[in-house]
Amino acid sequence: MSMAIIEPGVQTTVQDFPGRLGRLADGVSQAGAMDHFALRVANRLVGNDDAAAGLEVTLGGLRIRFEADATIALCGTPMPATLAGEALPLWESVAVSAGDELRLRMSKGPGFRAYLAVTGGIDVPEIFGSRATHTLAGLGGLDGRALQKGDALALLDAGATDGFAGRRFDALPEYANAWDVEVMIGPQADPDFLTPGDVERLCSQPWKVDANSNRVGLRLEPFRLDWARSGGGIAGGHPSNILDDGYPTGGINMNGDTAVILGPDGPTSGGFVVVATVVHGAIWKLGQIRPGTDTIRFRAVTLDEAIELDRALDERIARAGA
Amino acid sequence: VTGHPSPTAAVREAVDGKPKVTFRHAGDRFLLVEYGEMELDLELNFRVLTVNALLHDRAVDGLVDTGPGLRSNLIRYDPSRIDPARLIAELQAAEDEVPAGGGVDIPSRVIHLPIAFDDAPSRQAVERYARSVRADAPNVQGANNIDYIVAYNGLENREALYAEVLATDWWNAFTGFFPGLPFMYPLDPRYALFAPKYNPTRTWTAEGAVGLGGPCVAIYPVESPGGYQLFGRTLPIYDLAGRNAAFRPDPILIKPGDRVHFHRVEEDELDAAFAAVREDRYEYHIEEDPFDVQRWQAHCAEVRDEADERRRRREAAAEETPVP
Question: Residue A303 and residue B84: Cβ atoms within 8 Å?
């Protein structure tokens, strides 16, 4: 059983959750669904594990023909969708018959990505323990690349998932054009690297997200920090330079005056400071922020608050089914 | 936000020859463990990798992953499985257990790789860059980067550069930027080379290309963009398809803490070996050889004067050489 890609849309990739863990020491990026909230809900609606591979559809434009009966769920940005010509509701599981065509038009937002889960999950080889596509490294997903016209995707055996159609998720996330994103300050912040004023500045105003943003990173409009150090010492001239450290996913990486929030496909290490880190309970938002139009305001939280936020998110996702 | 909690979770002061250790929160899933001060000191990296090996032996539940850097280790954990305070206690216990520098050997291998200097694909990459990106960059004059490295390091000629590359083992301090890409430092301080990176970066580099950026030598695991000054080419170091036996246990050849030793071959010989790798007719020469830190320290002490003298010459030359 399989699905035929008639049109791949702007960029559609196979992604899973949590992506590729366990290979930081080898320089392998995490990859995985940029908005894990939407993919996990979609998976649960069709009776899959959180970890099942689905499709991450950026903006829209995807057309698929199903070659067999299945149950699907589409979650994420409101993307006008039809299945066999009928309007397809989002955040709901729907039965599909062999031969049906799914058509996703462009999302006008808010939000930027939608996730399609299919009973069983997409069957591509596991590389380093994950099916997630990392296009930069050319690994995972289908041949390490975004989908193309004419591709066929196989599905894993769904087992007994009959009766999963018609389930609806009602604890919907709030999408916006002005986003509040929870961060923990650090690892390289005040007093060693930044001034207290720098940290305040980072969190006091909304930052516009540059159009040149993607799964590797969200680039913010340039801003000047005062910095606690006069230079980078041995690591180089600018105080944003350090000797190479590992980079956390969601880290806000300062490259001179340019801040980039490291996405799931971002590098695992590098020679620039990470002044704050998006916490796990908020990292899904990075997948829904629209490059070129949306703004981000960072909200500093404590470790305990971050862990609580993550726990609350897990609980919310669990409402889509176990 | 004034009064936000400090990212610094704990600090161990330097004691009994062990460096200072700073534990910094990096969000709620990562801790950055940082050793000593911001200086290029391979002994800090030796400690990073020794403690890292111990952590892997321990298999602490909830510790998901570790990513060594030059003088740090990024610990990924799952706070639903391990309380962050307990994780830090586990990491502290590992620090207690690992003696000061030189106390234990570091698990390591010597990987012998052939290198062809001034190879055709590297010249082609430079030529392409000069033609389509930046012709006036000082590092691409003469359609190669080698003359630039030679000038920047105050070496007599190309052969002097090649001799330095061949004279030392190269220590893979950490892997990053791309899966399997080693960042290697010379274990013999006399052969510490340096080169500023491309500006802007190069759009294409051949698989197996060997280059110098800052104080690091890197091998490109696949065709990719890059910023290092290229001086030669070696065999594949990454193969997801496992076409050679060397890659079947693991598609990534060079691990943090491995040493690479280059030997010189002509380019046609390298090309033949490259083809043999693909056809599984080539056997990589890899020795298990734990790294003896004390012996290394003794050697460094022995050659210190010569290393300092060479460094001064290099620095003087660097000042006279334009930066890209």
Answer: yes
Q: How far apart are CA B281 and CA A297, in angstroms?
A: 57
Q: What residues form DSSP beta bridges with A272?
A: A241
**Looking at the DSSP assignment, which residues form a beta bridge with residue B110?**
B259, B287
Is B306 strand, coil or helix? helix
Chain B closest-CA separation from residue A94 CA (Å): 33
A26–B26 C-beta distance less than 8 A: no
Task: Say whether pLDDT at A269 is over 90.
Answer: yes
User: DSSP of A71-102, one letter per residue?
Assistant: EEEEEES---EEETTEEPPSSBEEEE-TT-EE
- Chain centroid offset of residue A299 CA: 19
**Chunked mean pLDDT (size 10), chain B, 324 residues:** 79 94 98 94 95 93 96 97 97 94 86 98 97 94 97 97 98 94 97 92 94 95 92 97 96 97 98 98 98 95 97 94 90
Distance CA B314, CA B295 (A): 26
Closest CA to A185 of A207, A172, A203: A203
Q: Comparing C-alpha atoms, which of A39, A43, A97, A40 is closest to residue A70? A: A97
User: What is the Cα–Cα distance from A283 to A35, expressed in whole angstroms?
Assistant: 7
By the 8 A CB rule, do B293 and B106 touch? yes
Q: What's the distance, CA A151 to chain centroid?
A: 23
CA atoms of B109 and B249, how far apart (whole Å): 15
Q: How far apart are CA A316 and CA A26, in angstroms?
A: 34
Instruction: Name which of A200, A247, A220 is nearest B176 in CA terms.
Output: A247
Closest-CA residue in chain A for B31? Answer: A187
**Phi and psi at residue A152, to the nearest 5°:** -120, 135
Task: Please tell me the distance from the alpha carbon of residue B236 to that of residue B253, in angstroms, as a whole number.
Answer: 9
Kind of pairing, strands B109-117 and B259-264? parallel
**Which of A154-168, A263-277, B213-227, B281-295 is predicted least confidently?**
A154-168
- The token pair at B169 is 């083992």
Buried b (16+ CB within 10 A) or exposed e, A184-200: bbbbbbbebbbebebbb
Chain CA centroid to CA B295, Å = 21
On whether the CB atoms of residues A20 and A132 are closer than 8 A, the answer is yes
What gap in Å lies between CA B94 and CA B96, rounded to an integer? 5
Q: What pLDDT, on the 0 to 100 scale, is given for residue B1?
A: 43
- Which stretch of DSSP H or E encloses residue B53? helix B42-58
Q: What's the ipTM? A: 0.96
Q: Can you tell me the distance from the alpha carbon of A239 to that of A226, in angstroms, rounded to the nearest whole number?
A: 10
Q: In angstroms, how far is CA B71 from the centroid of its own chain?
A: 12
Interface contact flag, A186 B24, Cβ < 8 Å: yes
Chain B residues lying within 8 Å of A199, measured CB to CB: 1, 4
| Residue B85, phi then psi, degrees to nearest 5 | -65, -35
Residue B99's contacts (CB-CB under 8 Å, 6 or more residues apart) are none
> Does the structure show a pLDDT above 70 at A79?
yes
Which residues lie closer than 8 Å to A270 by C-beta, 6 or more apart? A244, A245, A247, A253, B176, B177
User: How far off is chain A from B114, nearest CA to CA, in Å?
Assistant: 22
Count Cβ atoms within 10 A of the Cβ of residue B284 and give its class: 0-12 exposed, 13-18 middle, 19 or more buried: middle
